[in-house]
Amino acid sequence: MAKKKSSKSLQKDGLSNLKTTSITSANIIKSNRSKSPSIKKFVTEILAGNISYLSRAITLIESTNKKHQKKANTILEQCLPFANNSVRIGITGVPGVGKSTFIEVLGKHLTDNHRKVAVLAVDPSSSINKGSILGDKTRMEELVNDKNAFIRPSPSGSSLGGVAQKTRESIILCEAAGFDTIIIETVGVGQSETMVHSMVDFFLLLKIAGAGDELQGIKRGIIEMADAIVINKSDGENIKNTRIAKIEFSRALHLYPPKENGWQPKVLTASALENTGIDIISKMIDQYIHVTKKQGFFNAKRDNQNTFWLKTTIEESLYHSFFNDKIISSELRQEIEFLKTSKTTPFNAAKKLLKKYHGET
Q: 314 CB contacts (<8 Å, ≥6 apart)?
């Protein structure tokens, strides 16, 4: 006859079984969390318009992890044949001009007209954790809940001109996911306008009247890049000022040589707050795309942009490769000390370092 176990023994066995079950469950949860979807799964879901997988793929693109980068590059390659079928619009302007409100109203206008809109908003980065500090998703409450819209705020980090380093790759994924209109918002500082101009089809400059930056805008030469200038906040008591500003900017545009495609940049007024002028702006963009495609300029411009980004990527890769080289880092410190004591010149030091890098004697 089997010996009956004591209550203490049964309690001990129960706790042991419970502990074993808990560990097994924890391992299963941990395994599920660590298991990343396959490349095939990513591509299939992105092409099906799955926003969750699109977001995760963009996160892989933005990652500095080498395994993530390798996976992201393969996903990009497989999505590329399904890309290049959107209209890319760049929108810039100084902080306070109302970019987020304007983009939300324009985006809603487009989705109401059966367009799928992706907004890649490049936010200023926190100086502490390098994270996004403005958070456009919180400032576009209506658009973020639109089933035909996708908003992706990305910290600008240390990338040139405040444009997120991987914005261009994100465009490809958004296009593959079926978004036919891509809007890129810049932080509106430094060289970000130039960088965005090199990745979009239509470049729109937002201004406000009475802010004292009209002449400064002309001096910076940004008008030369703009395909249109929109003077925002044309409402209430500011309507008169926006009309005056429109005349001034229209005159300024005539000081610049005609664009290569023959397009004459236009100056329009709008109020994102009151949703006025948005329809006219949307039609103007459509007109520009129609004209440039008919001329063949649209595709030629994209070809030039691809060449530009090829060269830029090579330059960045060589730059990081050079300065991350341990031998070069050591030699560089020495050459800097020589400069301080006038034992060499910047040019000779540079030549010496480059020869060292290329293995030349």
A: none
Torsion of CA 169, 174, 178, 179, to 10 degrees: -120
Q: How many CB atoms lie within 10 A of CB 276?
A: 15
Report the distance separating Cα 93 and Cα 189, nearest Å. 8
Overall average pLDDT of the 324-337 stretch: 94
CATH topology of domain 84-295: Rossmann fold (3.40.50)
Burial environment of residue 44 by CB neighbours within 10 A (0 to 12, 13 to 18, 19 or more): middle
The edge-to-edge listing of strands for the beta sheet with 149-155 is: 149-155, 117-123, 181-185, 87-92, 202-208, 228-232, 266-269
What pLDDT was estimated at residue 166?
Answer: 83
Q: In sequence order, what E strands does 93-232 have? A: 117-123, 149-155, 181-185, 202-208, 228-232
Q: Which of 29-38, 78-87, 111-120, 185-194 has the lowest mean pLDDT?
A: 29-38
The larger pLDDT score, comparing residue 346 to residue 316, is at 346
Give the C-alpha separation, 72 to 190, whole Å.
Answer: 29
Q: Where are the domains of the chain?
A: 37-82, 84-295, 310-357
- CATH (residue range 37-82): 1.20.5.170
Q: How far apart (Å, rounded) are the C-alpha atoms in residues 45 and 51?
A: 8
CA quadruple 193, 197, 201, 202: dihedral sign: positive
Closest among 236, 237, 231, 222 to 280, alpha carbons compared: 231
Which phi and psi angles does 176 have, rounded to 5°? -65, -30
Cβ–Cβ under 8 Å, residues 185 and 119:
yes
- Helix/strand/coil for 188: coil
SS3 235: coil
User: Which helix (H) or strand (E) is 301 found in, with range?
Assistant: helix 297-323
pLDDT of residue 133: 39
- Burial of residue 284 (number of CB atoms within 10 Å: 0-12, 13-18, 19+): middle
Q: In this predicted structure, what is the pLDDT of residue 94?
A: 81
